[in-house]
Amino acid sequence: MGEFLDAALGFPAVIFGAALVVVVCFWLLVLAGAADQHSFDSDLDSGTVGFGGVPVTVSVSLLVVVAWFGSLSGTVLLHRVPVSGTTRAVLAVAVLAGSLFLAWGTVRLLAHLFRRYFPAEPPPSRKDFVGRVCTIRTGSVSAVFGQAEVAAADGSTAIVQVRQAPRVARLAELHAEELLVSGSTGLLYAYDEEGEFFWVSPYDAALDPGPKARPDGLGLPEGMNG
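RE: above sequence
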């Protein structure tokens, strides 16, 4: 026990020991609701040191814990080496540097695993196109056939399968202005997972009585915005 205390209160373990006390106090405040674990995410960019994808408070806490454990182990071993004076001071600095390097490598590896298994953003889905305005690319759209071009949120475009409800298609035949033909504009209002196609309806922003469509095409006609 005495050897452990001597190492914990000796250089360089005492430096990381003090940091560890701060870390423990911070997480106690988080548990008590007096602090937010994402408090420093907007102030510090941990991605520059390879910790991106993990909250700053988590990565720094892990860094301190690993560095403290490494420095503590190194200090114990250093106390068992029969050296003194300048040599001991140089070895103590080496333990400090080695502990920091060990902690950095460990946290970087853990951050990489965290990003791999817990992506920050969900993968793109076809359902992301629901509610977007599209351009018909086939001669016409029926209840069994049709394709359209739609823009994604990142600006890229995709060709998707579209279908028009049979009743709407029959009504469109009576009103030429509502026909979905090549080059006309439609609104993707639902996605059929079994058939892997979108239900589309004629859309004219100029005739929309509700709020104007947003520039990214997310605007919905009145009565279709849920």
